[in-house]
TrEMBL record:
UniProt superkingdom: Bacteria
Family from the record: Belongs to the QueC family.
Record bears the keyword Coiled coil: no
Keyword Transport annotated: no
Top-level taxonomy: Bacteria, Pseudomonadati, Pseudomonadota, Gammaproteobacteria, Pseudomonadales
EC number(s) reported in the record: 6.3.4.20
Identification of the protein by name: 7-cyano-7-deazaguanine synthase
Positions annotated to bind ATP: 16-26
Organism: Pseudomonas lundensis
Residues annotated as binding Zn(2+): 195, 205, 208, 211
Length: 230
């Protein structure tokens, strides 16, 4: 590859959790002609099945590089996903649920921003959704827009005229629409894990909020959900 072709390469850093939404976003970015660089986080979550799923998705969708960054969000706790003393709820709750992880998307996007600056990639993709979601404040369009403003104030690239764009292509899609889009783009959803409390084999509980949203999305799309349950 020549130096000139490297400069022209359209690169994107994509947050990849190993779940349905983020896998779809990788496929969308690839379809738009991006060279995809994916980032996952070992942040002290209840299970590693989603990290294994992220690695599978990255391989299947042909990303250029897939990084797993170690964090210690369980050190501050405050979430059913990082604190084993807090039960994962198995029924819808009012307000922001206990599965919300304090500052998670802010931290994740900040690290993705750092890698994007190193890669000379101006686009960062995240699979947040404001239609079929659990009510997390860091999934709202206002958050995405505010982070983009901050990214361009806080970076060398931003202040030197290479602005970053935070892309959330699923923002206004229903879960059914996300599934349909992914199927059209060739996403193998059997590789993904969405459950908040999956076992070591990646099998889902079928009871948590994430399982419910996923199952409802596949049902509404009229597509069989390949999720395995324990």
């Amino acid at each position: 590859m020549t130096e000139q072709s490297v400069v022209r390469e359209k690169r994107a850093v994509i947050l990849l959790s190993g779940g349905l939404d983020s896998a779809t976003v990788v496929a969308m970015a690839r379809a738009e002609g991006y060279s995809c660089y994916t980032m996952s986080f070992d942040y002290g979550q209840r299970h590693r099945a989603e990290l294994d799923a992220a690695a599978r998705v990255a391989r299947d969708l042909g990303v250029i590089d897939h990084k797993v960054i170690g964090l210690n969000l369980d050190g501050i706790g405050g979430s059913a996903l990082t604190d084993s003393s807090i039960d994962v709820p198995e029924a819808p709750s009012e307000g922001i649920p206990v599965t919300y992880v304090p500052a998670r998307n802010t931290v994740f996007l900040s690290l993705a921003l750092g890698w994007a600056e190193v890669l000379d990639a101006q686009d960062i993709f995240i699979g947040v959704n404001a239609v079929d979601y659990s009510g997390y404040p860091d999934c709202r369009p206002e958050f995405v827009a505010a982070f983009e403003v901050m990214a361009n104030l806080a970076t060398k690239a931003g202040v030197e005229g290479k602005p970053f764009s935070i892309k959330a292509p699923l923002q206004n899609l229903s879960k059914a629409q996300i599934v349909q889009a992914g199927i059209q783009l060739g996403v193998d959803y059997s590789l993904t894990v969405s459950c908040y409390q999956a076992d070591d084999q990646g099998r889902a509980c079928g009871k948590c909020d994430s399982c419910r949203l996923r199952a409802d999305g596949f049902a509404a799309a009229g597509i069989k959900d390949p999720t395995r349950y324990f």
